[in-house]
Specification:
Length: about 325
Amino acid sequence: MQRRTFLASGLILPSALATAAGSQSSLSALPAEVKFALSLKADAIGVNGTADELLAAAIKHGYGALSIPAQWLEGWTDKKKAAFADKARKNNIAWGANGLPVEFRKSESQFKADLGALPAHAKNLADIGVARIGTWIVSGHDQLTYNENMKQHADRLRDAARILGQHGIQLGLEYLGTPSIRHNARFAFISTGKELREMIALIGEPNVGVILDSYHWYTAQESVEDLMQWKNEEIVAVDLNDANAQLKLIDQTDVARELPGSTGVIDLAGFIRALVKIGYDGPVRAEPFNSTLNQMDNELAIAATFHAVKFSVEKALG
């Protein structure tokens, strides 16, 4: 399920970056202090293709990880899964964190149906070595109060986490700091890292952690100090995005965001340096949900995204 509907917004790239993204430039290594891997999450940048095509694209463009939707692996034989995992391993491609294939926000019947299918999905992911999966927490509800919503989330996500844990998979939860999401609902819900930590504690499963997004970190008005509350083993994935320079913080929307380093609105240098200080060694990907990027040719979108993330990391670390 897509979290947002793509809306029109211009794709902004620094001029040097735009030139690089339009050509096959050299893929130099990241600074030595970086332990994390740049990850391709195709659905977040409007790119489609088969699992084999996207693995080949990740290799070609210099990514260090690829997000794998569980649905990709349905019907695969053990032989095909083994060959796919072997190709990734030989090309130094780790696995990122794609979406949890369970709808836990709606009816109990739908949740139970999806939960029933989760063991098979988890086994397929584990068979190729995927150890991370994630989802987001909507920061408001029209019927459930904060406490009611907290209980429902904790109960349902605990069930999912236990199944994933049996297969060695971490579950990452992403809080949404965007004010418009929180304010448009009758009852506000989790929108900061501190609140999310309370939910993680209530879930009480050791394989549950956080997905950090620079955009939601910014819109939640958090600081570098807020990032330092997380340990490496608690961070399942990281999204690196920039904000719309034409909007004040209070007016930012979840679909009017940019590739990292495009506008300079968000302190990505502080964000990235905090990840390095923490020793974070998981996947880092861009998730701008940008319609202009979405409409690009697949190759150009993949290249532009890689260079935007890499450019931001190199700029932050000098």
